[in-house]
Every structure is written in C-alpha cells, then in structure tokens.
C-alpha cells in the first residue's frame, strides 16, 4: 500500500486581530478641568454643571457632527448657564470649558505606538473639526494609520456606520477588529457588528487586550521603489513642531 503524502506544515499563526480601533477621549486624552471647577465654585455651581450643559446632546451633538463652530458651541453653553448664573460668569465658564487644556496618557500612547508594528491602528472618535490641531499639539498626529473623526464623516458613535468606515480604512472585516472605548454603549455597538469590544477603565485593560496583538508577527514594511525616500527623510520646509 502506498504511503500517504506527508502532511503539509502548519501555516504560520494568523494575527489575532487584523486591526485595532481605539477611542481618543477617556482612553488616550484627558482634559484639565481645574479652571472650570474653580469658576463653578466661585459662581456657586456644583462641580460638573458646565459639563452637563456642554455635553447635553442638543449642544454637543451638532459640534461632533461638524455642524457648528467652537464659538457657537460656547454660545450654547452660555445660554444653558444664564438661567443659573449672571451672564459674565456664564461666559467665563463657557470659554474655560471650550478651551480646556488636555494631556495624553503616556503609558497608553506607548502601547498604541507598539500596535502599529503589528497591525493597522485607527482612532475612532467623536470630536470637533479642530481635532487635527489638538493631535498635533499633543505630538500624536502620527500615532495612528487613520483617524475617523465624527465631525469629518458626519456620523458619531454609537452609529454602526462609523465603525464600518473605520474597519474599511483599516482594510479589515469587522470580525477581525479589536475596538477599545471608555463608553460601554460604544463598545456594545462595535460588538453588535462582530468586533471584539474592550471597555476601557485603565491602562491595565488595554495592556491585557493588546497582549495577543503585541505578540503576533510584525507587519511587513512597505517596499519603496529604488531611489525614493521615506516621508521622514524628505526636506521639511515650512514644517513646524
């Protein structure tokens, strides 16, 4: 009896995920509300009163869909506060809130920078039209392969379409995407599309979720035609840091 042909060697282990989709605010970026809190105390308002007005859907959603400017958003906050405080205090609070400083969580950023060596990273965020300026201020304008900003695409989480846009830009099917967000409703919406959702509560959650990604084989570097240079090696005339 002839011997069966030798078994084919096993294929290399597939990547655990083909893309990582990650939220920005509450995961990577955090706002400093010290000045807002000080002004609220001076006005006799409970902490968080300004945020409650600024993030109310009727004020926040038009901003996140790119329909109003920062000035118009601040004006809506003033209107929401003036029944409770004098106009000058409402204006000061609205300005402080709409121009609040922010920082990036460096341990989270470090983890995400490592992701790009293994699979595409896409930021999926409900953010205003000036997001690119904010990312540049943080030194994060090159953090991700793509940024899907609600105010640019006209769709906000948890609408399923923004997740589909992100997966398409990553070149991955939803079922091969890892999605990270600090809001459970956004995680649930991603999971409904077949994505693996992670509810972020701290860097430990992210480290655990990314462990399979960071141990999978590295993505191949793109091959450039002979004689071409990478973007980083080109003259940076007019570039500012």
Task: Describe the structure in brief.
InterPro entries: HAD-like_sf, HAD-SF_hydro_IA, HAD_sf. This is Hydrolase. This protein has helices at about 35-45, 50-55, 55-65, 70-80, 85-100, 105-115, 130-140, 150-155, 160-170, 185-190, 205-215, and strands spanning about 20, 30, 100-105, 120-125, 145-150, 175-180, 195-200.
Could you tell me the radius of gyration in angstroms? 22 Å
Shape: elongated
How much is the average pLDDT? 88
**Helix count from the secondary structure assignment:** 11
Please indicate the percent range of residues in DSSP E strands (runs of 2 or more): 5-15%
Total domains: 2
Fold-level CATH name of the largest domain: Rossmann fold
Which sheet architecture does the biggest sheet show? 5 strands, parallel
| CATH structural architecture of the largest domain | 3-Layer(aba) Sandwich
Specify the helix fraction band.
40-55%
N-to-C terminal Cα separation, in Å?
Answer: 73 Å
CATH class designation of the largest domain: Alpha Beta
Total beta-strand segments:
7
CATH homology group of the largest domain: HAD superfamily/HAD-like
Largest sheet, spatial ordering of strands: 5-4-1-6-7
What is the secondary structure topology, with strand pairs?
Blueprint: E1 19-22, E2 29-31, H1 34-43, H2 49-54, H3 57-64, H4 70-81, H5 87-98, E3 102-104, H6 106-115, E4 121-125, H7 131-138, E5 146-149, H8 150-153, H9 160-170, E6 177-181, H10 184-192, E7 196-199, H11 203-215
Parallel strand pairs: 1-4, 1-6, 4-5, 6-7
Antiparallel strand pairs: 2-3
Helix pairs in contact: 1-5, 3-4, 4-5, 6-11
């Amino acid at each position: 009896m002839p011997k069966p042909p030798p078994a084919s060697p096993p294929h290399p282990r597939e990547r655990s995920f083909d893309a990582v989709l990650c939220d920005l605010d509450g995961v990577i970026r955090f706002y400093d509300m010290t000045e807002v809190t000080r002004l609220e105390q001076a006005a006799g308002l409970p902490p968080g009163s300004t945020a409650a007005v600024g993030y109310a859907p009727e004020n926040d959603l038009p901003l996140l869909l790119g329909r109003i400017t920062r000035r118009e958003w601040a004006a809506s906050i003033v209107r929401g506060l003036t029944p409770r405080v004098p106009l000058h205090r409402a204006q000061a609070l609205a300005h402080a809130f709409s121009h609040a400083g922010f920082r990036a969580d460096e341990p989270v950023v470090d983890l995400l920078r490592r992701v790009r060596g293994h699979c595409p990273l896409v930021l999926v965020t409900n953010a205003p039209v000036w997001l690119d300026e904010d990312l540049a201020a943080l030194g994060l304008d090159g953090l991700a392969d793509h940024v899907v900003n609600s105010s640019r695409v006209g769709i906000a989480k948890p609408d399923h379409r923004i997740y589909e846009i992100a997966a398409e830009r990553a070149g991955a099917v939803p079922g091969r995407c890892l999605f990270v967000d600090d809001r459970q409703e956004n995680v649930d919406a991603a999971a409904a599309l077949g994505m693996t959702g992670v509810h972020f509560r701290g860097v430990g959650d992210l480290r655990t979720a990314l462990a399979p990604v960071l141990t999978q084989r590295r993505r191949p570097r793109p091959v450039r035609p002979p004689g071409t240079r990478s973007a980083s090696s080109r003259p940076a005339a007019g570039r500012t840091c």
